[in-house]
Amino acid sequence: MKARIKLLIALTLLVVFGLGVAAGVLGERYLVHKKIRRPAAERQHAPSLDAWAKELGLTPDQQERMREIFKKNEERMKTYWSEGTAKLKELRKMLKDEIDGVLTPEQRAKMEEMIRKHEERRRSESGRDDSNRNYSRESREPSKRAPVRERS
Question: SS in 3 state form for the chain?
Answer without folding.
Answer: CHHHHHHHHHHHHHHHHHHHHHHHHHHHHHHHCCCCCCCHHHCCCCCCHHHHHHHHCCCHHHHHHHHHHHHHHHHHHHHHHHHHHHHHHHHHHHHHHHHHHHCCHHHHHHHHHHHHHHHHHHHHHHCCCCCCCCCCHHHHCHHHCCCCCCCC
